[in-house]
Amino acid sequence: MHDFRELEVVLRAHADAWLGRLSGLDLADYDDWAAYLSATHERLCILHGIEPGHRGGNGAVSWIGMAASERDFGGGLAAALYFLGHAELLAAMGMVTDGGDCCC
After folding, report:
1. Which pTM does this prediction carry?
2. Using one digit for the tens of pLDDT, what is the confidence trace for 42-82?
């Protein structure tokens, strides 16, 4: 399925529907999506006792970190939303952190 909405609209939908609830952060408190995603990733690492900056695992926190890192690699918002789509699915399944005993 392809979402034809503007990328910013899709990001706001992610932030409103689940990212904000998961992290306790509000998109309105940040200058741009990159700052929000970075703060969300950092907050989730702290909340779940994960090393700050952790990426590359199989849980939602890692995928949110990969979305946040897209600003550094030039992938932009479209690439970040790709990672957020996977993170949303993992979070819905309770796989917030990495490993076999993932839970929220």
Report:
1. 0.81
2. 999 999 888 877 777 788 999 999 988 876 666 788 888 88
**Sign, Cα dihedral of 48, 50, 53, 55:** negative
Nearest to 89 by CA among 67, 59, 69, 66: 59
Give 60's DSSP letter.
H
CB 77: neighbour CB atoms within 10 A?
20
**Dihedral in degrees, nearest 10, Cα atoms 84, 85, 90, 94:** 80
Sequential DSSP letters for 23-87: H---GGGSSSHHHHHHHHHHHHHHHTTPPTT--SSSSHHHHHHHHHHHHHHT-HHHHHHHHHHHH
Residue 1 CB neighbours (<10 A): 2
- On the 0-12 / 13-18 / 19+ scale of CB atoms within 10 A, 52 is exposed
Residue pLDDT, tens place only, 71-89: 666 678 888 888 888 898 9
Residue whose structure tokens are 């789509």: 85
